[in-house]
Amino acid sequence: MEVLSVLGTGTIGSNVVRAGLALGYRVIATGRSEKTLLKAKEIGAVALRDNASAVSQADLIVISVKPQHFTELIKSIPRTFWKGKTVVSVMAGVRLDTLSEAIRDANLFRAMPNVNAVVNMSATALSGSSAGKDVVEALFRQLGVVYWITEDLMDVWTALVGSGPAFISEIVDGLILGAVASGMPRDIAHSAVLDMLRGTVENLKAHRGHPIEVRDYVTTPAGTTIRGLKAMEERGVKAALIETIEGSSKRASELGKIVDEKIRRELLDAER
Ligand SMILES: NC(=O)c1ccc[n+]([C@@H]2O[C@H](COP(=O)([O-])OP(=O)(O)OC[C@H]3O[C@@H](n4cnc5c(N)ncnc54)[C@H](OP(=O)(O)O)[C@@H]3O)[C@@H](O)[C@H]2O)c1
Questions:
Q1: Which of 41, 130, 169, 259 sits at 20 to 30 Å (Cα–Cα) from 24?
Q2: What is the rounded distance in angstroms from the CA atom of residue 61 to the CA atom of residue 245?
Q3: Is 3-151 a domain of CATH 3.40.50.280?
């Protein structure tokens, strides 16, 4: 049986563990605290504190610790243990170049899932070009859909798809409040907005044209929709959304640089 080791069984890690179990892997999941190890066991993995042992036993390895814990993790694993393994990092901001400084002779990939992995509907970006693409893709497909992108698009992916669920939740909240302001009970508004969103997604997917075509189909002259659209225009909603993604993407890039440079410095110090 193939072995998957998940190093760091937190929010993302535990979903990767579930994905591996569903694919029939024997899964080893690591953590530092009793709480994490217990959770790993409950999900059905072999829980270990020893990351080196987890790496040595595995064919496929997913690194899902926070970036600030990466150097400490790397230091606990002999370099030769990585040889020939397929390794995926889900750590935000840590570049493939930097990973390859720490992990030599392995097939390296980056993955950027989003929080919708908890309902198996993540849209996950994958980067990397080494052998092992198929197994990496199959693993993340268990969590939703997968896109192969070039690494230079990871920051905007992080903004659009990583932070996207927060932006959409904010918009959903605004729509609910608007309905409540117009006299609808909150629970009905909440459920109705989610159903309307789901329907709109399916409609947009089926239509495949520009979103504006669907918008215009609903917009009758002097009707209710154009009144709402006018308010959105006056309040600059579209400009705000463009700035939301642009700003968030810039921040992802800034944070990525900080995280990446810090890890590079720590790795150099560890070598001395
Ligand atoms: N959350 C998201 O939506 C999301 C999306 C995309 C990417 N990411 C990336 O995914 C990674 C994990 O994020 P998360 O939200 O899942 O974080 P999290 O819930 O804090 O999980 C991190 C886990 O790593 C464990 N850990 C830390 N140091 C360790 C070590 N030396 N050995 C073994 N386990 C160790 C922690 O266990 P203990 O508490 O027991 O130490 C914890 O369970 C991050 O790098 C983040 O950038 C997250």
A1: 130
A2: 31
A3: no
Pocket test for ligand 1, best of 5, 6, 12 (most atoms within 8 A of CB): 12
Tokens 């720590």 found at? 266
Q: Mean pLDDT score of the chain, rounded to an integer?
A: 96
At the topology level of CATH, where does 164-235 sit?
ProC C-terminal domain-like fold (1.10.3730)
Give residues (CB < 6 A) around ligand 1.
7-13, 30-33, 36, 51, 64-67, 69, 72-73, 90-92, 112-115, 162
Short-list 100, 200, 41, CA closest to 192: 200
Q: Cβ(28)–Cβ(52) under 8 Å? A: no
Query: Contact 159/180 with Cβ under 8 angstroms?
Result: no
The token duo for 172 is 């959903």
Q: Does 239 score more than 80 pLDDT?
A: yes
Q: Could you tell me the pLDDT band of residue 207, with boundaries at 50, 70 and 90?
A: confident
